[in-house]
UniProtKB/TrEMBL annotation:
Keywords: Membrane, Mitochondrion, Mitochondrion inner membrane
Keyword Cell cycle: no
Main localization (coarse): mitochondrion
Localisation: Mitochondrion inner membrane
Lineage: Eukaryota, Viridiplantae, Streptophyta, Embryophyta, Tracheophyta
CDD domains: SPFH_prohibitin
SUPFAM superfamilies, A to Z: Band 7/SPFH domain
Top-level taxon of the source organism: Eukaryota
Membrane topology (UniProt): Single-pass type II membrane protein
UniProt organism field: Thalictrum thalictroides (Rue-anemone)
Protein name: Prohibitin
A Pfam family the protein falls into: Band_7
Quaternary context: Component of a prohibitin multimeric complex in mitochondrial membranes.
Length: 150
């Protein structure tokens, strides 16, 4: 799984001297990549691929919360964290497509079975109507069988 993440940060203004002393001018380059990577691994590991898609907002919120906490340890504030993209490997994409095709085929099979059942019910009804008409005909002919009918 490849995840695109947008992170907007700023140093906590009151802590600028401390940030400069401990991390230097390039604090963003020294701290953020590692805590972002660690946070992503920690959060994403809790979800399977389909959950990452269906629960994207929850995943994003968890990443934001954990990353905010981690960045605060370095006196860095996070203004925004959002998932910009989720990309899955070819195998996963193929599996999803196969699952969708299987679901469509199952729906089609269900429809065919339901249609066959309806056709069967129709045939039974037609047979019953035919039987009734034959019985009605025979009932009308019954007096002719006991007497001479012209």
């Amino acid at each position: 799984v490849k995840i695109g993440l947008r992170v907007l940060t700023r140093p906590i203004a009151d802590e600028l001297p401390k940030i400069y002393r401990t991390l230097g001018e390039n604090y963003n380059e020294r701290v953020l990549p590692s805590i972002i990577h660690e946070t992503l691994k920690a959060v994403v590991a809790q979800y399977n691929a389909s959950q990452l898609i269906t629960q994207r907002e929850t995943v994003s919120r968890e990443i934001r919360n954990l990353l905010t906490e981690r960045a605060a340890n370095f006196n860095i504030a996070l203004d925004d964290v959002s998932i910009t993209g989720l990309t899955f490997g070819k195998e996963f994409t193929a599996a999803i497509e196969a699952k969708q095709i299987a679901a469509q085929e199952a729906e089609r099979a269900k429809f065919v079975v339901e249609k066959a059942e309806q056709d069967k019910k129709g045939a039974v009804i037609r047979a019953q109507v035919h039987r009734i008409s034959i019985l009605d005909y025979l009932h009308k002919q019954l007096p002719c069988l006991t007497t001479a009918c012209s």
